[in-house]
Design goal:
This protein has 182 residues and is mainly α. Strands 1-2 form a two-stranded parallel ribbon. Helix 2 packs parallel to helix 7, helix 2 packs across helix 8 and helix 7 packs antiparallel against helix 9.
Length: 182
């Protein structure tokens, strides 16, 4: 397996889940995908540190979202570990829970509802926007830091081979995703 093929398949899976309103599988793929790409980007530092750094330096450079990078990390922990909105960070008041909109739902309507029903700190994000931010964040990373010797070394450690066909599909997928969700 190689990095590009795995990434391409991951984004195809995310796109399928988003289009089919399969919210939890889409979130699992997005959050684990951020983990994976952040490891390539930053190596063996703490998961929290590399996850939030990738969000700030790549995803939010392309498509900034309402939740902070720490809120997204807490949501990642909640979704991947318990499939609930509850994380240790949100329980300690260090991060706010994220409410998700998907499909044709309007994010502004979600915000109004959340603020009316649960006036405490909450953050809202549309699944399409999160997927777009991740995909374009990866493209931002690939265009910039990706060629560093350290990143290439980490990729080679777990992924081998490089297919121009897969790279082309990945780049085409970025163009298509931007059209779909943006």
């Amino acid at each position: 397996m190689n990095f590009y093929r795995n990434s391409y398949q991951m984004f195809e899976g995310i796109e399928h889940c988003v289009k089919s309103n399969l919210v939890m599988p889409a979130l699992c793929l997005i959050y684990s995908g951020i983990d994976s790409i952040a490891w390539v980007a930053y190596g063996d530092i703490s998961v929290r540190k590399r996850f939030t750094r990738f969000v700030e330096e790549h995803m939010y450079k392309e498509v900034p979202l309402e939740p902070s990078s720490l809120d997204l990390y807490a949501a990642r922990c909640a979704i991947l570990h318990t499939m609930t909105p509850d994380s240790d960070l949100s329980a300690k008041g260090q991060a706010v829970q994220i409410n998700y909109a998907w499909g044709t739902a309007d994010i502004d309507e979600l915000r109004k509802s959340v603020n009316t029903l649960l006036p405490s700190d909450k953050s809202c994000v549309h699944l399409n926007d999160l997927a777009k931010s991740f995909r374009l964040g990866v493209a931002h990373f690939v265009e910039g830091d990706f060629a560093s010797p350290e990143c290439i070394q980490r990729m080679k450690k777990h992924y081998s081979g490089l297919s121009l066909e897969i790279v082309s599909k990945f780049n085409d997928g970025n163009k298509n995703m931007a059209k779909i969700v943006g």
